[in-house]
Amino acid sequence: SDGSIRLHQMTSEYPLMQWNDSTNGQAIIALQWALTRPAVFFVLDASSNIYIWDLLENDLLPVAKQTFPSENIVSMTLLGEPEKPNGLLGIVLAKESGQIDVQYVKKKWALP
User: Fold this and answer.
1) What is the model's pLDDT at position 61?
2) Which of 46, 93, 109, 111 has its CA 20 to 30 A from that of 79?
3) Is 1 helix (H, G, I), strand (E, B) or coil?
4) pLDDT tens, position by position, 65-88
5) CA 92, CA 102: separation in Å to the nearest integer?
6) Per UniProt, what is one GO molecular function of this protein (predicted)?
7) DSSP per-residue codes, 39-108
8) Residue by residue, what is the 3-state secondary structure of 7-52?
């Protein structure tokens, strides 16, 4: 609820990494790992911002942020085929209006 993200290893109760206030205090609505690239994850906050984290590029801050100021996004999920090396990765966004939007991710965050 405060925008903190914690990365845990299954064998320990303590986080390997912790990012406090990663969304400027906005609650996190969804977080999902990329299906095609293990070091990348996506975060949706309550203000309809999507943050892209690539831990191989920067493990302190997100590498990109996309804002949807005029749309209230209520849910996010990723689509892709991890078994295929084409690097096709999409984000499916559910809007408060009931519309569904599919956005494709740049290859640099999608390629295995």
Assistant:
1) 93
2) 46
3) coil
4) 999 888 899 999 999 887 777 778
5) 5
6) dynein light chain binding
7) TEEEEEETTSEEEEEETTT-SSS-SEEEE-TT--EEEEEEEE-TTSTT--EEEEEEETTS-EEEEEPPGG
8) EECCCCCCEEEEECCCCCCCCEEEEEECCCCCCEEEEEECCCEEEE
